Protein: N-acetylneuraminate lyase
Amino acid sequence: MVVFNARGLVPPVFTALNDDYSVNYAAIPGYANYLASNGIKGVLVGGTTGENMSLSVSERKKIADEWVKAGKIHGLHIMVQVGGAPFVDVIELAKHCSKIGVDSLLTLPELYFKPQSVTELVSYVELVAQAAPNLPVLYYHIPFMSNVAMNMPAFVTEATKRIPNFKGLKFTSNDLSEGSQTLRALKNDQEIFLGADTLLAPAVLLGIKSSIGTTYNLFPRQAQDIMDAVACSDLERAKALQEQLNKAVEAFTAEGPWVPTLKAAMEIVTGMKFGPPALPQRPISEAARKRIEEELRILKLIN
Structure:
């Protein structure tokens, strides 16, 4: 029986690049240490934040290899996203992850020949799960990027019946009504991970207690404080902390696309070097970086 035990806050990690756009694998050990020292227990490798969809299969494999090594040192649960590639490559990545000590898989849907029904989507995830039968497999629901907008309660119900190692999903949608319905459709050994950083507090109120969000790289303790405040029924504190985080997100998104702005912000907040975004995305301007830094000072999120 496949067991899935990842819960709580799971940052989707960035992929550090050198100035020539090659992957900076040497950055991973220090990055893992930073997250673990800030209370993080698991990471998502290769999500939207990690830009895996812009990388080669060989790069994606080596990134997974290095995170597994770092994860063992720091006790991190390593979840790897294998989708966003031709189907044969997705299967190759899933098989690779099943052999190297990855703890769980996440997969996007097929992005070109898109599934046209819940059953077709379940069939796709089933094939990925069959390639790694020893691993928990989760689905990555991000309809504003994938343009695959199936009903998630119906999907998880059918996936649970058909896929023995199906263990939940990353729910990147602002529709918390559907998120709450999806939570109720899951079994006790499955999990829903909220993918909307700006809705963390209300999601916790609805019973969604795990989340995968880019800003948890920058402000891991802030996010945990939001969850703790809700758990303690200190809703005024939860509201204030959530508003502070949301204003930071607004400052980022005002300066450009999500990954380039957040990658720059990560350097500002941590002092670590992450380099440019993967092509075809472009870095934000130096002026934009300075505006982000100033806003974070105003919000008292950095000194």
In short: The beta strands are 42-45, 77-81, 104-107, 137-141, 166-171, 191-194, 210-211. The first strand starts at residue 42 and ends at 45.
